Amino acid sequence: MVRKREGARRDLVEHFVYLAENAGLDVAERFLSNAEATFGDLAQQPRIGAPLNLQRPELVNLRKWRIKDFDNHLVFYEPRPDGVSIVRVLHAASDWWGLLGLADT
Into how many domains does the chain fold? Predict the structure, then answer.
């Protein structure tokens, strides 16, 4: 099972709009399709992503993975007993530490 948190849903919309405006609708639609496929892969193998090894107890299980064919888009997620919880989907060039609230971690 894949659960998307509000931040992840918002991120997906923002990336879709950006890609549609700058790379075309076909690329934006492929991004969403590949994101969903990646989430499904993560739900099947939740430990595949790289652990972030954070000190904050509420983030101890956070992992990251790249969206298939969109290597600059990172998925931050938590493995769950029944799948994964998608926390955020951020561009690799962004200040993802700050966006995740980890700048002071």
Answer: 1
